[in-house]
Design a protein that fits this description.
Radius of gyration: 30 Å
Oligomer: single chain
Strand content: 5-15%
Keywords: Activator, Repeat, Transcription, Transcription regulation, Transferase
Protein name: Transcriptional antiterminator
Number of strands: 18
GO molecular function: protein-N(PI)-phosphohistidine-sugar phosphotransferase activity
Structural class: alpha/beta
Number of helices: 25
InterPro entries: BglG_antiterminators (IPR050661), HTH_11 (IPR013196), Mga_HTH (IPR007737), PRD (IPR011608), PRD_sf (IPR036634), PTrfase/Anion_transptr (IPR016152), PTS_EIIA_type-2_dom (IPR002178), PTS_EIIB-like_sf (IPR036095)
Largest sheet: 6 strands, mixed
Helix content: 40-55%
Shape: globular
């Protein structure tokens, strides 16, 4: 059993992904180096069963090593230790103090001590670090006798501090630490944004949605504290195609929450979020201006790439649109001083060296013409678009696949092109962020490929989860999914018979089994011996499983082939503990063991009570096969 301190070591090593010294861990946990070494020994004993270890290199430090899947699992286990009270480390305390000062005006050390459940000595000990962090943002603490301290400085810098500590966006999730906005208000704001996007058929990657939400939350919080913005802080070219949508969203939020959201706030959110709007039906950017300087720049840059490398992308309209839009975002972020972290940067650099070089050519030209300097993260995003273009081929008809990817449009396109290049009988019907899953499910699809876990209750098609979007192993997994799907269809079509789909009347489980069994016997599908065996099995333990379903069953060794009878009762009856109206009587022949996997597919279908009720209501054999996805 590990402690919270052990979990802190795992979390810290996971976040760093490099060697960390014992001294660094000692400062992080506020314990001695000797204690750190003991904790590492404890953890290695605990991690052994996962195939993971904390490797130690003398003079270098510690590093967490093992299979990627197990490392992620270990990280998730460690995270559970922090689902309750917030981190009590030195770093955690500093973060708490900054958030408390951001939420209030003047605040004394005594008030901070009470609010954060820290001693005054602990608060004072952290203040030097707080002041150092504020200096990095050109902010400072102003003190007032008998009142305490507050953070002062330029408004945009204060909002930048809030983005790092009070409203933290980590790609597909948002952590909000603002007392001035309630959870219900956050939900309301999120709903207003979503409604506005859907009303215009606009698609946003999950990370972009959270970037937008984060800026709006900060805008609302600052307006409530009279932290307004001057229009002179923004340039006119900040008003890109996203401005008018954001202005509309802020107007609705202002009315709903009674907060005056003016044009300056719309300019702030528009410029700092750096989002680009796509129509999820046409996949095109929503803007009327298609002949501006960025379009011309992309055309010239791709001409230079063609001359320098022999690779000509100028005929790839999808690539040109995606690259143009992303350069708009990159320029906007640079002007606003926004750094966008790329969660796949390490993998991108390792997997796409040639495409990274192409992105670097574009970045160099961008710097020469616009004095815009792109960092490694932005370079990685552009590399993804080149990666998609390099792998792009003509779409092929075949299995209809939808991609759910939370990393962004560039990564989604790369994943789509990888699948199309390596699998001949595939047609990508769309790529969507997880937030648009309900829209994706309305499409006629055979399979979902997803980078994140989905709520399975509304998903009626197979889902292939991928951990590494760059791995070719996805191709093997893809074929395996469809092979299993075809095997499932073959099994279901073999054991389900229209003649064994009947309405029955019964008052007891025994009567229901006999009546369904005799209907099947009359069609020559089973014999009296099998009915007796099913009844005997039922006496051992009841087969009612909830959702109005019972699955009485047996395995025989006679001449009768495997078959499943389906009986729909006129009204529900009490089986043993549960009410039952739909009966699957499973009669398997031991010689046909290849049919046994059917159970897990049948249970998957039964878990959805809506499916069960539809079968009962419609009483149609074809409807049953349709709902089982084996028609």
């Amino acid at each position: 059993m590990i402690s919270r301190k052990h979990a802190m070591i795992i979390q810290y090593l996971t976040d760093k992904d490099t060697y960390v010294t014992a001294d660094e861990l000692s400062l992080r946990l506020e314990v001695s180096v000797r204690t750190i070494k003991r904790y590492v020994q404890d953890l290695n004993y605990f991690l052994y069963e996962y195939g993971v270890e904390i490797a130690s290199v003398k003079g270098v430090g510690y590093k967490l090593q093992g299979p990627a899947k197990e490392l992620r699992r270990i990280g998730e286990e460690a995270a559970k230790y922090f689902e309750g009270p917030l981190d009590d480390s030195s770093e955690g305390r500093i973060s708490k103090i900054i958030c408390a000062l951001l939420d209030r005006s003047y605040t004394s050390a005594e008030e901070l001590s009470d609010m954060l459940n820290l001693s005054i000595a602990s608060v004072n000990k952290c203040m030097a670090s707080v002041k150092r962090i504020l200096r990095e943002y050109d902010l400072r603490l102003a003190a007032k006798p008998f009142y305490g301290s507050k953070i002062v400085g330029e408004e945009l810098q204060l909002r930048a501090l809030m983005l790092h500590y009070a409203v933290k966006s980590d790609g597909d999730r948002l952590e909000v630490k603002l007392d001035t906005i309630s959870e219900q208000e956050i939900k309301t704001i999120e709903e207003i944004i979503t409604e506005a996007l859907i009303a215009r058929s606009i698609i946003l990657a999950d990370k972009d949605f959270n970037e937008l939400l984060a800026r709006i939350l900060i805008s609302v919080a600052r307006v409530r504290k009279n932290g307004g913005l001057e229009k002179s802080k923004f340039q006119e070219d900040y008003r890109l195609h996203n401005y008018y949508l954001i202005q509309d969203i802020l107007t609705r939020i202002g009315r709903k929450l009674a907060v005056p959201m003016d044009e300056n706030e719309a300019l702030y959110v528009s410029s700092s979020s750096g989002i680009v709007l796509y129509d999820y039906n046409t996949r095109m950017k929503l803007t009327a201006d298609t002949q501006d300087t960025i379009n011309r720049f992309v055309e010239e840059a791709l001409t230079e790439v063609s001359l320098a490398t022999g690779l000509d992308f100028r005929g790839d309209v999808n690539f040109i649109n995606a690259l143009t839009m992303h350069l708009r975002i990159s320029i906007n972020r640079f002007k606003a001083g926004i750094n966008a972290k790329n969660p796949l940067l390490k993998q991108i650099k390792a997997q796409f060296p040639m495409e990274t070089s192409l992105a670097a050519l574009v970045a160099k030209k961008l710097q020469e013409e616009f004095a815009v300097v792109l960092d490694e993260d932005e370079l990685g995003f552009i590399t993804m678009h080149f990666g998609a273009a390099v792998e792009r081929k003509k779409s092929a008809s075949g299995k209809k696949v939808c991609i759910i990817c939370h990393y962004g449009i560039g990564t989604s396109q790369l994943l789509a092109e990888k699948l199309k290049q390596r699998i001949s009988d595939i047609h990508i019907v769309g790529t969507y962020p997880a937030r648009y899953l309900d829209i994706a499910l309305k499409a006629d699809i055979d399979l979902i490929v997803s980078t994140i876990k989905l709520d399975q209750k509304d998903v009626k098609v197979p889902v292939l989860y991928i951990e590494n979007v760059f791995s070719d192993e996805i191709v093997n997994e893809f074929h395996q999914v469809f092979q299993e799907q075809e095997e499932r269809k073959k099994i279901f079509r073999t054991v389900f018979h229209r003649e064994a789909f009947v309405r029955i009347a019964a008052e007891t489980p025994e009567e229901a089994i006999r009546n369904l069994g005799r209907a099947m016997q009359a069609k020559g599908l089973i014999n009296e011996e099998i009915i007796t065996m099913v009844l005997e099995r039922e006496t051992m333990s009841s087969t009612d499983i909830g959702n109005l379903v019972a699955i009485p069953h047996t395995i025989s060794e006679g001449a009768c082939p495997s078959v499943i009878g389906v009986g729909v009762l006129e009204k529900p009856i009490l089986w043993r503990k549960e009410e039952v109206q739909l009966i699957f009587m499973v009669c398997f022949n031991r010689k046909e063991s290849h049919n046994f996997p059917l159970f897990k597919h049948l249970y998957s279908f039964i878990r959805d009570e809506g499916n069960v009720r539809r079968v009962i209501k419609t009483f149609g054999f074809e409807k049953l096969l349709e709902l089982l996805d084996v028609k």
